[in-house]
TrEMBL record:
Gene3D superfamilies for the chain: YjbQ-like
Stated family: Belongs to the UPF0047 family.
Entries under SUPFAM superfamilies matching the protein: YjbQ-like
Protein name listed in UniProt: Secondary thiamine-phosphate synthase enzyme
Organism: Hypholoma sublateritium (strain FD-334 SS-4)
Source organism, top-level taxon: Eukaryota
Amino acid sequence: MGWQHTFTLNRRSKGCHLVTDEVLGHIRPGLEGVQVGMLYLFIQHTSAALTVNENYDKDVRRDMDMALDNIVPESFDWRHTDEGPDVSHTKATLVGSSITIPITNGSLNLGTWQGIYLTEFRHAPHSRRIVATVL
């Protein structure tokens, strides 16, 4: 049997944000009793993304944000500018809208230095909806 829950992450402005603990707070009931399974997280937005990366050193998050800004600069001649130079859709495609994490004995089986990132591409703070599915 599967388990699914949609939840909203706290508002955050542009940057790479470690959200592992916040996600766990929402999905803990779905992990209970799962000996071997998979967690699928899907973000229901086109201007933010999810990824797994370094969970300890905040400089990694700053470096990720800087690298994405250099790969996809606001200075391009963007046509979609309803909310300013809109790099967010391109960055969201590069990073991705979903991640998959194994579950072992009721816990996420992340590596020692791995955590779940929300990569927010809008400058203004936004709340983001996530669909969590456990199989």
